[in-house]
Amino acid sequence: MTQNSPTEYERVQALYEVRTDDDNFDDLVAQTARVAREDYVTSKDDHQAAMELLWNHLDGRGVLMEKYKQNQHVRDDSDLGVFVKVFETVNGLA
């Protein structure tokens, strides 16, 4: 990351309100997988903050449960599979 590059949180914060729920969900899935795998482009705290912003935004709109129900069958190590596992853990479904 160069000095002038925005952090993940700054990038998400600048875009999430104007992007579609699907685009935000795709970004959330990627952020969740990065945090779970400890595969950071910037830092753990930065990726967690971006993930939490997207999570809270989509959860408040009712999108997370809908996306979970659509994808709960995914039981692999893909980014989407990681999201499903994290969602279940956070919501006491695991």
Protein described:
By secondary structure, the chain is an all-alpha fold. The protein is built from five helices and no strands. The chain has helices at residues 8-15, 21-37, 44-60, 63-71, 79-90. Helix 2 (21-37) packs antiparallel against helix 3 (44-60) and helix 2 (21-37) crosses helix 5. The protein is globular, with a radius of gyration of 13 Å.
Tags for this entry?
5 helices; 67% helix; 94 residues; single chain; globular; mainly alpha
Short structural summary:
The chain is mainly α and 94 residues long. The protein contains five helices and no strands.
Please render the helix and strand layout as text.
Elements: H1 8-15, H2 21-37, H3 44-60, H4 63-71, H5 79-90
Helix pairs in contact: 1-3, 2-3, 2-5
Extended strand count: 0
Poorly predicted segments: none
The number of distinct helices, counting runs of at least 4 residues, comes to 5
| Strand composition percent | under 5%
Gap between N and C termini: 36 Å
Order of helices and strands: HHHHH
Q: Write down the overall mean pLDDT.
A: 95
Percent range for helical residues? 55-70%
| CA-based gyration radius | 13 Å
Shape: globular
**Main β-sheet: number of strands, strand sense, barrel status?**
none
Task: Output the structural class.
Answer: mainly alpha
